[in-house]
Design brief:
The chain is mainly α and 131 residues long. It folds into two domains: 59 residues, no CATH class; 58 residues, no CATH class. Helix content is 59%, strand content 0%. It contains six helices and no strands.
């Protein structure tokens, strides 16, 4: 349900609402800037609301977003294997660790080299700016 809150409750509603705004399909004319950091930050906090209201899902921390931010920074210096081993201090489960590293290293032709997809940093940056 948190993903639904994130994707539909934030992204879909923002896109749907934009159709009715004066700047719809005229972003350049009205100098409407890209708001990816703010939108993703809001989506993350929106997703955490369900966790906060649920008695069974735990605490609404931005742990995943913080870990993705950390991994994006480290990916610029480490290979897939080095990053996989580095985050062992945060994630014991090898399958979960694999999925986290795979996400930041996706799109690279040679994962033994430093580098990664750094877009995931906007989730934490936006959430921190909003909060």
């Amino acid at each position: 349900m948190g993903v639904i809150d994130h994707e539909i409750g934030t992204h879909f509603l923002r896109r749907f609402n934009e159709r009715f705004q004066v700047w719809a399909k005229k972003r350049d004319k009205y100098e409407v800037k890209n708001c990816i950091r703010t939108e993703e930050g809001f989506a993350c906090t929106n997703q955490q609301v369900r966790i906060a209201l649920s008695e069974t899902q735990g605490n609404p921390f931005l742990y995943r977003q913080a870990l993705n931010y950390y991994m994006a920074c480290k990916a610029s210096q480490m290979s897939f294997v080095e990053l996989f081993n580095d985050i062992h201090k945060y994630i014991d489960d090898k399958h979960s660790r694999w999925k986290f590293v795979l996400r930041v290293k996706r799109g690279l032709s040679d994962t033994s080299e430093p580098g990664g997809l750094y877009k995931d940093q906007v989730y934490l940056e936006g959430a921190v700016a909003i909060l």
